[in-house]
Amino acid sequence: MDLLQRSLIKLAEIQKKHTRSIAVLVIILTIILGIGLKDLTINSDFRKEMPTDLPIFALNDRITDKFGGEDIVVIAVQIDESVDLKSAVRDIRDPRVIQSLIFLDEELRNEPTIISVVSPASLFRGKENVTPQEITKTLNTPQANAFFSRNYKMGLMYITADIGSGEEQIQKFDAFIQNRIDNSPKPPGVKFGITGAPTLRMTIFDLLKSDAVFTLIVAAVIILLLLFIMEGSYTQGILVFAPLSLGLIWTMGTLGWLGIPLSVATVGLSSMILGLGVEYGVFVLSRYNEERAKKNSQLDSMKTTVCGIGSAVIGSGLTTIVGFGVLSFSTVPMIQHLGQTLALGIAFCLLAALFVNPVFILLEEEYEYWNTHRKLENLAAKKEIHVQRGM
Predict the structure, then answer these.
(1) Distance of CA 267 to the CA centre of its chain
(2) What are the domain boundaries of the chain?
(3) 269: Cβ–Cβ under 8 A, 6 or more apart, which residues?
């Protein structure tokens, strides 16, 4: 018998002898690692996931440092067809719309972070008390047509600013732009919208975060239902799913403790970890049930399970961990982080299957024995009462 098998048999003996103590240690470990969940963040700076040490990125950084980084935010002014008023705007070149843009242009150009603002209002800078006739005359030039769609249902305002790449800076800038739009006089029949690369980037990350939560819930529910069906018992399904959930909590908590943020590549890894790690618990529980069906004792069944399945599970888990871990040698940090995080998640799921699954199985059997014994005692007590009354 090799060292691994002897170690696994010893582990099974410890799990049988100190079942409740191990369960308490698991709960304490989960609480400690779970505290790290509050520090788990999502990195919204896509540049940090790129190989910035490559010459092309290094050159771009030098250019940015020398000339400053610039982001372009676009304000789209559109005809609102839902407004059914006689005074509603039906042509985006309406002088009332341009006067609104002139007001907004002046407000935005006073902001220090804004480098430039270009829109139809740019044609009227320096002019006071612009009349509707002047606006109509100026907008009939080819230069003005560059700001309008062909059907004159939409006009654009381009804002160039040094916003930064952080989520907080982008949200703050978008809120500032929206506040200026809300405080600008607007004629009926038009609506303003904000777009551009920074806004799109934040929208994508917001979608990723909401999708990550949604897919995790869906994956958890479907996996749990499948376990109920395959195991033919709610209790047996939970015996597999509970340690798997602990492995997921350990993974996310560890990332939080280490200050490793989730990224566009790893934000959805929770569902992947559940899907990849569930098989280990299924193997352990199925083998244990087979041994118990042979009328073997708890200890003998657990020894056979942990030794036999443990060797196979360790081999399967390690190959998966290595497969994901090799991604650490990728040039792109985003791929590196994906591989490292998945490897960590599989490692924790493997540990949960070997150390936690057997403990939960033993605790469940102890509870079933106690519950059955309690019911038998109640039945015996009721029977004795009936006998005494019959006498």
Answers:
(1) 4
(2) 3-49+233-390, 70-161+163-201
(3) 262, 338, 341, 342, 345
35 residue type, one letter? I
Which tokens is 330 given?
């990728």
pLDDT in tens, 322-373: 999 999 898 888 888 889 999 999 999 999 999 999 999 999 888 887 777 6
Is the domain covering 70-161+163-201 a CATH 2.60.40 domain?
A: no
Instruction: Report pLDDT for 324.
Output: 92
Helix%, strand%, coil% for the chain, nearest 5: 70, 10, 20
Structure tokens that stand for 74 in this block: 């676009």
Q: What is the pTM of this model?
A: 0.76
Q: Tell me which DSSP letter residue 42 carries.
A: B
| CA distance linking residue 182 with residue 194, whole number of Å | 12
pLDDT tens, position by position, 164-178: 666 778 888 888 899
- Asked whether the beta carbons of 303 and 318 are under 8 A apart, the reply is no
* 244: its two tokens: 């798997």
CATH architecture designation of domain 3-49+233-390: Up-down Bundle (1.20)
Dig out the tokens for 281 from the structure.
Answer: 């618990």
Question: Is the pLDDT score of 126 beyond 80?
Answer: no
Q: Are 324 and 342 in contact (CB under 8 A)?
A: yes
